[in-house]
Task: inverse folding
């Protein structure tokens, strides 16, 4: 049978699986359940929403526990411990499967793009039902159908792809905010990073497909979108009619009903003046810049294949801060990259002081087999890394508290995200600069925007009071 699009072909498989799920449910006298455990970044979170959307279309009901009829692990492989974590989990799941013979287990995501992982699963984890990677998550229904028909483990890994499949179902975690992929893959090949090997080459979605998706989610009540890409600055280069990321932002800005726009992740090497201008002029783009630095040492940045120096990073940060007053700055920083000396580490601390980050994701360098850095000499000793890591955290705490103090007494717009888990009658909301604030309110307000006066700073978050108009 010929299909006009890949998504129509997949909807056909969803229908076939729906009949199977209905039949099984009747046999068992209850609904079939599913659960997706996600490791890793926002890209993975977004992929999991798509996977759950497909499962729900097939008639599965999502539950909060891994003791489900269909359990998916969406894996990450950025750090070594992510792999260890999964293998530990699989040991526990094997026991669950022995108790529930109907249970199916699926593994997908970045870790599955590593050939040695696939070999290990085939040898040691024969009870796994389906294994697929990052490029073909849209095929979930087709792979489950193959598993049901054949009765044996299905492994479907694509080395790379130029395919983007649109219009598949998605089960959003929040009704009022969501991530939207604008591109997939990465061409940067930083020497410590496995992402280009597991997520493939860069490919951009068509702007009209992105706009259509955002319009749809806004019509369903979404107030804030996060545009996702490994390096958003590269958006549009692979399109037939190239378009810059800044131009895409201008189009997204025009969508009525959308109140906030965020994006992750730009790269310091090619962040354009045009992007800074669009941010400065925008009513909707949050004045928050997450700009991964990784190290403050120009020597190490060269070894990392980052294509900028310490001086260039600082100059760019200052330019952004001057053009967008009050912009919140966050970053990614690696401690203990091979060959990092005390001098190199001091350079990193110097940048933290000069830029004054609001916060940063801090990582201990993790050796990833298959990346150039894994075979570099002078791997730094663990106890040295730990001491440096603690010093970095202490400095970040200082810069964060200093920035936090500046806003005390101000009234800010806040998107209310959830009830506060620590104190009854309190809500938690997010400021434009991505920091959290806790204040009194009613659960019915979740998902709305309110004005909050920031009364007290707590280093990485605020206590506030609602201002009623």
Result:
């Amino acid at each position: 049978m010929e299909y006009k699009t890949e998504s129509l072909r997949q909807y056909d498989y969803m229908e076939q699986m729906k009949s199977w799920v209905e039949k099984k449910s009747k046999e068992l006298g209850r609904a079939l359940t599913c659960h997706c455990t996600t490791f890793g970044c926002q890209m993975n979170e977004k992929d999991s929403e798509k996977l759950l959307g497909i499962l729900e279309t097939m008639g599965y009901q999502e539950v909060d526990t891994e003791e489900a009829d269909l359990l998916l692990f969406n894996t990450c492989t950025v750090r070594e411990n992510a792999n260890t974590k999964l293998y530990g989990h699989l040991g526990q799941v094997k026991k669950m499967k022995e108790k529930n013979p109907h249970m199916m287990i699926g593994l997908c995501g970045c870790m599955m793009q590593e050939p040695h992982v696939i070999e290990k699963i085939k040898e040691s984890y024969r009870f796994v039902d389906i294994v697929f990677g990052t490029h073909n998550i849209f095929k979930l229904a087709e792979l489950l159908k193959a598993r049901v028909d054949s009765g044996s483990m299905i492994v479907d890994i694509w080395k790379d792809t130029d395919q983007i499949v649109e219009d598949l179902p998605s089960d959003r975690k929040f009704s009022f905010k969501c991530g939207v992929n604008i591109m997939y893959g990465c061409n940067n090949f930083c020497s410590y990073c496995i992402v280009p090997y597991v997520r493939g080459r860069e490919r951009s979605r068509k702007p009209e497909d992105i706009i259509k998706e955002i319009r749809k989610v806004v019509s369903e009540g979404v107030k804030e979108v996060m545009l996702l890409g490994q390096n958003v600055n590269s958006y549009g280069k692979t399109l037939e009619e190239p378009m810059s990321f800044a131009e895409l932002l201008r189009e997204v800005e025009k969508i009525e009903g959308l109140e906030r726009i965020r994006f992750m992740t730009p790269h310091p090497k090619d962040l354009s003046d045009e992007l800074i201008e669009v941010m400065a002029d925008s009513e909707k783009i949050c004045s928050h810049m997450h700009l991964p630095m990784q190290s403050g040492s120009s020597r190490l940045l060269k070894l990392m294949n980052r294509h900028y120096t310490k001086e260039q990073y600082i100059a760019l940060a200052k330019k952004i801060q001057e053009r967008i007053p009050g912009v919140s700055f966050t970053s990614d920083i690696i401690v203990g990259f091979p060959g990092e000396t005390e001098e190199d580490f001091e350079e990193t601390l110097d940048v933290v002081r000069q830029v004054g980050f609001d916060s940063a994701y801090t990582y201990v360098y993790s050796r990833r087999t298959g990346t150039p850095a894994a075979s570099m000499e002078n791997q730094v000793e663990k106890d040295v890394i730990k001491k440096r890591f603690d010093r970095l955290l202490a400095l970040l705490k200082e810069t964060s508290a200093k920035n936090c103090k500046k806003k005390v007494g101000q009234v800010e717009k806040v998107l209310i995200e959830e009830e506060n888990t620590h104190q009854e009658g309190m809500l938690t909301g997010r400021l434009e600069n991505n920091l959290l604030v806790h204040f009194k309110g009613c659960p019915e307000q979740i998902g709305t925007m309110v004005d909050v006066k920031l009364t007290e700073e707590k280093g990485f978050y605020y206590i506030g009071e609602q201002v009623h108009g």
About this structure: The CA atoms of residues 132 and 156 lie 5 Å apart. The chain has a mean pLDDT of 91.
